[in-house]
Design a protein that fits this description.
alpha/beta; FAD/NAD(P)-binding domain; Enolase-like, domain 1; 7-stranded mixed beta sheet; 5-stranded antiparallel beta sheet; 32% helix
Length: 452
């Protein structure tokens, strides 16, 4: 006799991965529940990709105003930013997206619970004082910003709070060397805030191609961001005027805001995982197999909480693989190689495939092609921006194994390059492709001379 459950699948977390899994499972006629304690859409929609990109757009307008003069436009007065308008318009857009996610869940036929869900056992989920039985449980609770403890750390804020500031500070200190730190440093700087970016290591964006990361640093400095490398914060003190940030080099910075973008941790605490056999790694992420199953056969996990590739489209694809495993043919899989990604810093960084360092470690003979030039907009715009493009080729097979870009529209261009690398394109394929002229993108198919 088949055991009866209230649900076939109970999803904890209504972010991109959780919602996709719930909708797909429900579309297959399964009884599905979703519980979310905070906001529909998860990190990306609410305090991540979407509002961040809106802020990036906002921060780019001063440079566009400046460039327009060279094209004959008259800017009669100094443009000024109304922070409250930007913040509130952003919030209204996010609320619209929250509503869309709500409708997607409702229309799928899944039950939505507004509250914190915890796991009471391998087949039990409790939410809002009620406990439900479920054949399978999916943990899709994402990640959460991490701020280390140090003297005055309580005065620092995370990226979550950045989207809801009452006022914009005149001076800001951003701490961190990863993509969130460099993105917010660019946003604040573009919005007119005197911005200091501090990182304890010698290189920003250390997991990316070193040459391209350095191009980002050069571009950020040219735009006015004060970058302090090999520097740590010893203490933050509250003053009458704001904050005093004491640095490891003996210097001190006065600021109205201290943003810590020092990484994110899996949001796995206090979920009741101790009531199961689920195993967690040292960093709190949930350990899963290729089918996203934990050590507890009825409990699954995906997205940022498993700490594989923390990208929204990856969580969505993981969800599709999981639902196929649970309720489909069980043939779907995910390939984590050659995933295109972008850092919406200023200048923008787009990348797919191997960095030069990774390629040289993997292949015996590597050919590198680099092009660095002033974008056409700047010929009349009068700015200092440059574009750098880089192709990395395995000389033995002629296959392009890495493609990188720093500059305007890098993300848009690298998305197409991602298809080429996924298809196994060779340098000969790139060379045989006719460029679109005049465009920056054509440079990727006109680089003939090997740099090294």
């Amino acid at each position: 006799m088949t055991e009866h459950f209230d649900y076939d699948l109970f999803v904890i977390g209504a972010g991109s991965g959780g919602v996709r899994a719930a909708r797909m499972a429900a579309s297959k006629g399964k009884k599905v529940a979703v519980a979310e304690e905070r906001y529909l859409g998860g990190t990306c929609v609410n305090v991540g990709c979407v509002p961040k990109k809106l802020f990036v757009y906002a921060s780019q307008f001063p440079e566009l105003f400046h460039a327009s003069v060279g094209f004959g436009w008259s800017v009669p007065q100094q443009p000024s930013l109304d922070w409250a308008t930007l913040r509130d318009n952003k919030t209204a857009e996010i609320e619209r997206l929250n509503s869309i996610y709500n409708n997607l869940i409702d229309n799928s036929g899944a039950d939505l619970y507004d509250g914190r869900a915890t796991i009471a056992g391998p087949h039990l989920v409790s939410v809002n004082g009620e406990t439900y039985t479920t054949r399978s449980i999916l943990v899709a609770t994402g990640g959460w910003p991490y701020i280390p403890k140090f003297p005055g750390s309580e005065h620092a804020i995370s990226s979550n709070e950045m989207f809801f500031l009452d006022t914009l500070p005149k001076t800001a200190v951003v701490v961190g060397g990863g993509y969130i730190a460099v993105e917010f440093a660019g946003i604040l700087n573009g919005l007119g805030v005197d911005t200091h970016l501090l990182y304890r290591g010698p290189h920003l964006l250390k997991s990316f191609d070193r040459e391209m990361s350095q191009k980002v640093v050069e571009g950020m400095r040219a735009k006015g961001v004060h970058i302090h490398l090999s520097t740590e914060v010893n203490e933050i003190t509250k003053t009458n005027d704001g904050l005093q940030v004491a640095l490891s080099n003996g210097e001190s910075l006065s600021a109205g805001l201290a943003l810590y973008a020092t990484g994110r941790q899996a949001n796995s605490a206090n979920l009741g995982l101790e009531n199961t056999s689920v195993v967690m790694a040292g960093n709190g992420s949930i350990v899963v197999d290729d089918q996203f199953c934990t050590a507890e056969p009825s409990v699954y996990a995906l997205g940022d909480v498993i700490d594989r590739v923390q990208l929204t489209p990856v969580a969505i694809q993981e969800a599709m693989v999981l639902v196929d495993h649970l309720f489909g043919g069980g043939i779907a899989s995910i390939d984590y190689s050659d995933i295109p990604t972008a850092v919406f810093c200023q200048p923008e960084l787009g990348t797919v495939g191997l960095s030069e360092e990774q390629a040289r470690a993997e292949y015996t003979d590597v050919a590198v092609y680099v092009s660095d030039f002033k974008p056409m907009l700047q010929t009349l715009g009068g700015g200092s921006d440059r574009i750098t493009m880089k192709l990395i080729v395995d000389s033995d097979s002629d296959v392009v194994v890495g493609c990188h870009m720093v500059g305007d529209h890098a993300a848009e261009i690298i998305q197409g390059m991602g298809i080429a690398l996924k298809a196994g394109a060779t340098k000969a394929h790139f060379d045989a492709t006719v460029g679109i002229h005049p465009s920056a993108a054509e440079e990727f198919v006109t680089m003939r001379d090997k740099t090294r």
